[in-house]
Request: fold
Amino acid sequence: MGSADNEDFNAKIIKAVDDKVSWFNSTVLPKVQEGYRNHLIFVKNLTNALQRRSLITPDPYQNDKKITDVGPIDDAPFNDAERATQLGIRLGQYENMVDFICTYVKFSVEQLPTAKIKKLVDFNGSFSWDALNPESARQNTKALGAALMELKTTTQGGGPAMSMLFDSIAKTSKDMEEMSRELKSVGAFQKERYKGEIRKEIVSKLGPDVRGNASALMEEIKKQMPTALPRRPFSADIVEELVKEESAPNKDELRSKLLQHLKVQEMPTEKAEESVNVHEIIMGAVLSLGSMSDQYNIVMGKVVTNHDILASEDKGFKQKLGRFFRRLFGMAEPQVEYEVIINKKGTDEKQREIINYNSFMAAFSKRIKFYTSLSSTDSPNYQKMNSQADDFVFNWVNKQMTENGRLQVLLGALDEYFKANTSGVNRAKIKGIKMELTTLKNVLVKVNQLRSEYASYVEEAEQMKKLGITK
Reply:
């Protein structure tokens, strides 16, 4: 093979590596990142479900623990009497780690060296999601399996919300396996990227006499690495592969395999477009809204508890006498109003607003019941919504997005009000809802993505129709 052939091959490899980097960054890694974001929502829902049944004890120091790097959580043995406490601590550690990954890990080939990928894959194996049972040899998997078995027994099926939780566990098992597989493929590719950089910065500038001589090429690469690629350590094993591709008797075979390995495999765009079902997309948004009922139920319980704590402080003689006569004559309790402070979005401006507690909670309860009825595809209300025209469902989803945004602002303001207006002893009893509001906000982000995706496809179809193009 002549010098021109060598140059042509080198150019092909450099381009193939660049194309593969672009493909990983634009197609594969965004899906992995989205997988971790969805996993965070799942973990929060799982933890809340176990907490409500007192199957785990929340770690009171969870929010104080700082994470600086990715790694697996503690899997040391503990006895069954410690299960609620230890599993609560470890699920808290796990949730914090997923949150750290979502917030701080940069999902690009350039930012994911092999060592970091190994840490992510090891972390993904913290629980055996496909084998959660009390007989597992792994401590955390064993403890979580036992807790879930009790959860299923105590809730006796638990209705749509509990059914969705166990369905989510099955989906999580597949998702984590797929995410680890994709991360490993990026890790394997890092070797070819390393070789590609050497080709670009060193090999492409060498003459054919050096490139065709194995020992001379190895020596020249080793010599130039510190200046040509100062941030890359010299790896003899990987460089030896490159040398063989340049000088071995079977280099044609090695080069052919390498080009095939670097080839980006993608489905044709036309086929992907044909498979899009816009109705399923917008109904996915409906189902996601329905899933919010579980978190809203937790929030409602905490708001009621906080309201009762604050009301218990109102123990003056006049208030007691008024309550006595109302109960004596069967009179309704007076309406309760809270004056809360709202931070206007996008500004530092604050405004005061009156919340009528009674009517607010009545409307909140009504929303929760309706969302619960939408949380299963088998429910009558979901089926009724499923039979509606897509534009009707889309408009309904738009309305829900606006109303939920407003609701969550008011809930956040109430949370701050209860914390600020309760006396010292009782303040420690106030139950915060920031964690639940974060989870609910993440659900709305997902709903908004589905809503935008639906609108994009509909708009594209309308434009094509105007142009006289049909699929």
